# Entry
Amino acid sequence: MTDVKGMCEPRFAAVEEALAASLGKDDVGASVAVHLDGEPVVDLWGGYADADRTVAWERDTLTGVNSTTKNMTALCALVLADQGRLDLSAPVAAYWPEFAVAGKERLLVRHVLSHTAGLPDLSGLTAVEDLYDWQSVTAGLAAQAPEWEPGTAAGYHALTFGFLIGEIVRRVTGRSLGDFFAAEVAKPLGADFHIGLSADDDHRVAPLIPPPSLTDEFAAGAPLGPDGTRREYTGAAVRVRDANSVAWRRAQIPAVNGFGNARSVALVQSVLANRGSAGGVRLLSPQGCEPAWHEVFHGEDRVLRTPMSWTVGFGKFGNTFGWGGWGGSLVASDPESRMTVAYVMNQMIDREQQEDNRGMEIIMAAYGGLR
# Structure
């Protein structure tokens, strides 16, 4: 068992035990947070920020959370919808006129948020560096034809999700997704989460550590399906060394390059579990949260190759909604119990090589505290 630091209400002691056990087994450094009724009840961290275990993981250590970022991007769209500035049932082209080509004239904003838009990949993407050119990527998506009739099927939009939502937000607000998130979500809440990280914060970053026996050439592909297969993908592969690069930190890739820790992830997402407010700050109305909870698609996901339930912006798993990131980070919110649980780490696990139950064990331990 490894020592952990921070705060934990006694009834959630099992969460602290689960983190300590994980740090003593699979994890190098990690943080865990639980928010209940929009308030923190668990805020823990421990281990090391580097693979050599020479630098301690501190209270304000940040790391890349990969696709856990999608939860933040989706929230931005829901905030705009709640403000009456974005209609989730409107065509994307109502905000982005160039989008109304190649069979996308009636593709709706909610289709993009629920991974049913038919644009899971960007054709012509050959290098990770291409992702840093916002105008080129979004122009390509605007010109591209969907793979299926929007709304009739789902396929996980691993990278395109952030560009599509981000460009809609930019058209509505005149600000990038990262800038909108910083001003309208992170700042009011006091959340230490960033989509596009400044040089001032570089010293706080714990680099991602590739899975055991693998190098920083380890690359993300389409997530592994239950039959051990992946959807064929011929585009640019994001490697661990890309996700650890300065260029990646400075860019805005709102599906995958957010930086934070469990405290900030749980704080932001607890807004949706707690009817629109957290820590006494209201970001949206109770009604404005509901699209995050309600299933809009259930069926075989063409990319994940597994049955999936998608809400407007999130994966749905029983009573919870949320999503996780490549390597292991995740966040789950339960609107019935008004609880949000987040887990953020630097040691990645390749699920093709070994099972990864770290985040789920944290979540189950948190539910134990509700009894």
Remarks:
- Confidence is low (pLDDT under 50) at residues 223-230.
- Residues 160-173 form the longest helix (14 residues).
- Residues 133 and 251 are 9 Å apart (CA to CA).
